[in-house]
Amino acid sequence: MGFSALVVRKDEESGKTSAEVETLELTDLPEAEVTVAVEYSTVNYKDGLCIGPGGGLVRKYPHVPGIDFAGTVEASDDDRYKPGDKVVLTGWRVGEAHWGGYSQKARVKADWLVPLPDGLDTRQAMAVGTAGFTAMLAVMALEDHGIKPGPVLVTGAAGGVGSVATAILAALGHKVAAVTGRPEQADYLTSLGATQIVAREELNETTKRPLESETWGGCVDAVGGPMLARVLGQMEYGASVAAVGLAGGANLPATVIPFLLRGVNLLGIDSVMQPYDNRVRAWTRIAKDLPMDKLEAMIHPAGLSDLPKLGSEILRGQVKGRVVVDVA
Ligand code: NDP
């Protein structure tokens, strides 16, 4: 029986891509051990790239994007999963090099799946999505290195990673300073638990001083670029920055002085190749430490046909909170 999927095709002559909802058959899906009836997916920056020309991420066309999904196992050749199991998938280049979650059915390797933790349903799992999962990895990395007394700074706070990081850190009892370039999102960020709003321009200005006042007890950074360089010089002695994203640029115009004189740690966070045990640890923590009413306030519902528009919006930094795509 046919099912719906967002398919990106490339015109070989012009090199242009187009994305449309099409009807596919099970035989169209790639070979792998587990077939999942996808219920929900979401929209990430990488999805924006892959719905469009791919930005070098897509290996071959036609392609089904969607770098994460949650759903129910329909068939499995692997002992770890059986029909009816609820699962979530993020990373492993699914939706880039392998067909992804913008489809009512997906076929993937058993190694890539994580059982949905108790306390989360498939819709909530995709409200969290890769962005929220990565935010939790960042919080865990900060905890593993010790969060200092000052407020924890979250950059790109009104975005997906930032929103979830803000809600988790606040629920854990930390003071959260939220950096945003959208002042109109201040009430939203306060509702998630931020106790201080910092204007993006304040941290985008460059300074020649490698060290400023010791202000932040930790930082989840979704922005990178000159803002990250500036933040490094404002960290408390021994505090850590979890570097998650590059919404503000991939370059890092910084000095090593904060590392040498203040023992600041710069912690790299990768969600794609994260080992299984840490994935389970992060999803378990999400179910425990992310208040579900806060998560609900971040959700913007969408369907498969909304994806081309949403893909270009996320590339322009115009998506607030978490888009949940109802695939079924
Ligand atoms: P979003 O687009 O939802 O959020 C990014 C936010 O960054 C925006 O909402 C905006 O926040 C801020 N921002 C955008 N442009 C700029 C700019 N030029 N200067 C400063 N701030 C800016 O994306 P996500 O939250 O989903 O992802 C954030 C980053 O993390 C992306 O770069 C993404 O690629 C990366 N990422 C990395 C992962 C990993 O495994 N390491 C996994 C998932 C995401 P505001 O409006 O509040 O200022």
From TrEMBL:
User: What superkingdom heads the lineage?
Assistant: Bacteria
Q: Which GO molecular function annotations are given, in alphabetical order?
A: acryloyl-CoA reductase (NADPH) activity
Family annotation (CDD domains): MDR_yhdh
Provide the Enoyl reductase (ER) domain boundaries. Answer: 19-325
Query: Per the database entry, which stretches of residues form a coiled coil?
Result: none
NCBIfam families given in the database record: oxido_YhdH
> What is the protein name for this chain?
Acrylyl-CoA reductase (NADPH)
Q: In which organism is this protein found?
A: Marivita hallyeonensis
